[in-house]
Amino acid sequence: MSILEVTNLEKSFGKTRVLKGVSFTLEAGEVLSVIGSSGSGKTTLLRCINALETADGGRITVDGSVIFDSERTQKFSKAEQRRNQRKVGLVFQQFNLFPQYNVLQNVTLPMLLQARSRRDDSGRRALTAQIEATARGYLERVNLSDKLESYPCELSGGQQQRVAIARALALEPKILFFDEPTSALDPELTVEVLKVIRGLKNAGRTMVVVTHEMEFARNVSDKVIFMADGVIEEEGTPEQLFGAPKSEKTAAFLTRSYD
Q1: What contacts 219, CB < 8 A, 6 or more positions away?
Q2: pTM of the complete model
Q3: N or C: which end of the chain has fewer CB within 10 A?
Q4: What is the pLDDT of residues 178-187, one digit of tens each?
């Protein structure tokens, strides 16, 4: 069974159809890159899967559990919504760190809130210590152990993005989503963030990455989707899509991207 199944996903904003029946699957441990021009529906797709937007139609299944179904008549309970949200993690384009908290606090806060949502108040001091230890471990994984007490304003863009990655990882999602994780970074900082993502792939993480970094998509992905005008115009392995695209739109996009 695929870890992610998206079936006939639809989304409109007013009279504008942004997603027009998008369907795809992803296996555990795979990295999927989603490429395409601005306005093709890439970010909206991620936001619908992460419940930041509500799709108008379709079905989304993560790890065997339906997290969205437009034909479902009974609403998800709050407990079900929280359980569904824990299955997916999103790293934003603009980091979205809390400026008033230091690096360690930025990573521990979502875990503390999640623990409270489960009403696990027993051994609160021990739980807090465990959460802090987990956060330190993930920050070490992204090479930020020396920045625990620093605030976002004291970090480079690449460091801020690595904090955001650690924060998402610490919640232990089944799938980690990235929305243009390097678009706000200069080339040198882009390299350090992509290095972290490559490390996550080597560790077997399941990821979906919306990216404009064609070389990253080509060299790191197991599967690539090219979106155009709200549909999946073409999908396949990097070798297939970059080496011998079947669609004229795909070929034209790749030519522009490499010019």
Answers
A1: 238
A2: 0.91
A3: C
A4: 999 998 888 8
pLDDT of residue 4: 97
Cβ atoms of residues 96 and 87 within 8 Å: no
Which tokens sit at 128?
Answer: 């807090």
Question: What does the pLDDT read at residue 1?
Answer: 73
What tokens does 207 get? 């990821």
- How many residues does the structure list for the chain? 259
- Separation of alpha carbons 137 and 38, rounded Å: 36
CA separation for the pair 215, 124 (Å, rounded): 46
- The DSSP string of 104-160 is HHHHHHHHHHHHHHTT--TTHHHHHHHHHHHHHHHHHHTT-GGGTT--GGGS-HHHH
Residue 96, sorted as left (phi over 0), alpha (psi -120 to 50) or beta, turns out to be: left
Query: What is the chain's Cα-based Rg?
Result: 19
- Which residues of the chain have a pLDDT value below 50? none
